[in-house]
Amino acid sequence: NKKILFEGAQGILLDVDHGTYPYVTSSNTVASSAATGSGCGPNSINYVLGITKAYTTRVGSGPFPTELFDNIGEYLGEKGQEFGTVTKRKRRCGWLDLVSLKYSCEINRVNELCITKADVLNNLSEIKVCKSYNSKKYDEVNFSDSDVLESLSLDNNDFESFSSWGEIKDLSNFENLPENLKKFISYIEEYLSIPIKIISLGPERNQTIIR
């Protein structure tokens, strides 16, 4: 039931680490695992809401193609409060990796997306997203090769850049958002071929836009 899945599970949290064995969690992170955990049959899942941050984070070791080792990476961690809730372990931060995200969306059969923490990027002078790996487009990347991420060394050609959108003052609806933020959202939608229906711009309920 679409309504039950959306309200009860709040969508399926995607783990873009899928495929980077052995640097993976021991839990099952694909959407089909919702059926296993709930006791429902696989045919009961007819809608998957994917959830992604506006940038990428990772805990622990393992390949991270878009990781930032500069003051921007530090800023994302501090501004986004990227620390473990219990352990206070610092998360690694980097630009949004659309190549891995598209793969994750495909194996999970995502219908629509929710993007969170877009406000963390507000005051950066330039925002980037990863669109290719060493100039290889998504359909040219062999994700069945577990070492595919280990040998990457991305350059400027692998990123799409967006101008800053600054502080967001009007959260009444999507159309009133800054133009540069709307361009950022639209690019992600076009790249993934998936609509972004929910945009979170802060921790409060009134800071979430549902389109």
Count of strand segments: 9
In angstroms, what separates the terminal alpha carbons?
21 Å
Shape: globular
Helical segment count: 5
Which structural class fits the helix and strand makeup?
Answer: alpha/beta
What portion of the residues fall into strands of 2 or more residues?
Answer: 15-25%
Rg estimate, integer Å = 17 Å
Helix-strand string: HEHEEHEHEEEHEE
Q: Quote the average pLDDT.
A: 85
User: Which stretches of 5+ consecutive residues score pLDDT under 50?
Assistant: 1-17
Helix content: 10-25%
* Strands in their spatial order, largest beta sheet: 1-2-5-8-9
How many strands, what sense, and barrel or not for the largest sheet?
5 strands, mixed
Structural features, described:
This protein has 211 residues and is α/β, with parallel strands linked by helices. Helix content is 23%, strand content 19%. It has five helices and nine strands. The strands form two sheets. A five-stranded mixed sheet has the order 1-2-5-8-9, covered by helices on one side. Strands 3-4-6-7 form a four-stranded mixed sheet. A hairpin with a 7-residue loop joins strand 8 and strand 9.
